[in-house]
Write a structure and sequence with these properties.
The structure is a homodimer.
Chain A lengths: L3 E4 L6 H16 L4 E5 L5 H10 L5 E2 L8 E5 L15 E7 L13 E4 L5 H11 L6 H15 L9 H14 L3 H13 L6 H6 L2 E6 L2 E10 L2 H5 L2 H15 L3 E8 L4 E7 L3 H8 L7 E5 L4 H12 L1
Parallel strand pairs in A: 1-2, 1-4, 2-3, 4-5, 5-6, 8-9
Antiparallel strand pairs in A: 7-8, 9-10, 10-11
Helix pairs in contact in A: 1-3, 1-4, 2-4, 2-6, 3-4, 4-5, 4-6, 10-11
């Protein structure tokens, strides 16, 4: 049996990857054996972060053995986790999402807070345990918070995220504004990706009552540019709906400069979206001014209207 | 709409009642409006605690309105919670049990640790938030830890529970050993209770795969004395099985002086118990040496063998 494995969700984003690496560091500093891994390919933003800070990507895994000890970061829903998670021994969860599709047979350490980023909670854990934060670890945590809160512009941002960034800026020696914009822009270069890859890049599976849905999101600095690929993206979504027998697929193209989203919505339960947002889809698409957060502004609306 | 309501599980025990009162105190000291309530009658041990320390019992409620803001302490499973919990807005959970039959539609503050008692976690929250602990609040927390860990003799006890008791002893001015034994003994006077009341006094509903079970527990200083009432207890259990359509009912009579349990087991899935403990039931009963913890020594065994 491997030592305790630490990982975030499938379709990893910057918070998921950084949280796993940071948690490995924290566990080691507390004298515990643990190893960060990942469940999918890095996106360009995360690649930029790891290159810039000079940290290797965690090893990729696809499934785990029965009884494997694990620490989950940045997720808890089994549908977003590793294959065979049902048979793992979950020792710990650190997360900032709702709790759903999750259970254990024994008591565990579970720490969730309604803050903008898992790394904000990890930052507090370093403080609470009186563990010093190294320069690179500070850079990783700051990157994750910038990523999840879109440089503190997302409504998911809290005072605790702001406070963490302030302190992490000092330790990491990185300037949040300047470094953050470069990092976010690196993530918007999606020209290399096929449409199939685009819709899988940051995609969350979720259950809406008895309906099965996916909500994918990409960041861009130019919505119009991305909408040029609407036809091939729709084709990929339709194939995915058929393959996974989905009722709804929402693909959000989020403008990180102006804080709006254009969505492409397909599936036989598109009425959930239309009811939720009070908008008729035209040619399978709609513009959502001020919407940038899947967790805070899209998922709850779908859940309430399912 | 009422202000935020704080409550523990149904069939309240000392940890559930004390945690609710303590959490109300902590919330108020942090400048937040909240009110402790309870979901059932006090047991004799808890009555002894509240009388000795001089604190009123929280008001009893039976159900909550849609959208009510709540804080759960000492439980998370909806089956153990208040009626209509599915439609509450769960702001926070502080607990030390496994997570199961629980979900939210939005991010929340969730703090679980695998320690012996919810009040041990609450004690840490006072420290983390730099909030001073009053004498009475210290007494309540200490009582809860003594109750849940049977004066630190249960295998659920951790170093953190021990450390908390040490410090709370100083603040409360109570002597843990002396006060603790009196308190535990007060809880073992069950002569007033009908058999129906006995099996409901500290009873947890749980799902074992597709089976529905209840595991009830009473503390005693004299197993033989309690077993004199075996026949009427079995009658009550049989009625309860029929009423709630249960597959299994385990009633544990736990000797808090010698740390053993005698169990009465009924229901068509009694084989789960027999398989789990490698014991044939004789006349519906078995002796389990060294078993005192439902959470750590009974529930996991049933769950693994269902």
């Amino acid at each position: 049996m491997e030592k305790t494995l630490i990982f975030g969700h499938k379709s990893p984003d910057t918070d998921t990857i950084c949280s796993a690496i940071v948690m490995e560091n924290l566990q080691k500093k507390l004298g515990k054996e643990a190893k960060a891994v990942r469940l999918g390919n890095l996106n360009k933003e995360t690649e930029y972060v790891l290159n810039h800070i000079g940290v290797d990507a965690p090893e990729m895994i696809n499934e785990i053995e029965d009884g494997q000890e694990v620490i989950l970061v940045d997720h808890n829903e089994f549908s977003q986790s590793v294959k065979n998670i049902e048979n793992a021994k979950i020792k710990m969860v650190v997360d900032h999402h709702r709790i759903c599709d999750f259970q254990t047979s024994e008591p565990l350490y579970y720490r969730a807070e309604p803050v903008g980023c898992t790394c904000t909670i990890l930052y507090k854990l370093y403080k609470e345990n009186n563990v010093e934060i190294d320069k690179k670890i500070a850079g990783l945590m700051m990157s994750a918070i910038i990523s999840d809160t879109l440089l503190l512009k997302s409504p998911t941002k809290t005072q605790e995220d702001e406070k963490a960034i302030e302190e992490l800026e000092k330790i990491s020696g990185l300037k949040a504004q300047e470094y953050g914009l470069d990092m976010l822009k690196a993530g918007t270069d999606l020209s290399d990706f096929t449409a199939n890859e685009l819709i899988a890049l940051d995609c969350k599976v979720c259950s809406l009552k008895d309906k099965s849905a996916k909500v994918a999101q990409v960041n861009t600095a130019d919505i119009a540019d991305m909408m040029k690929r609407k036809e091939e993206i729709e084709e990929s979504i339709k194939n995915d709906i058929e393959k996974d027998n989905l009722d709804l697929f929402v693909f959000a193209i989020t403008d990180i400069i102006n804080s709006n989203s254009q969505v492409i919505v397909l599936g036989k339960s598109s009425d959930i979206f239309e009811r939720g947002f009070g908008k008729k889809l035209e040619d399978n698409t709609a513009f959502l001014p001020g919407v940038v957060s899947r967790k805070k502004q899209i998922l709850p609306v779908l859940q309430e209207n399912a």
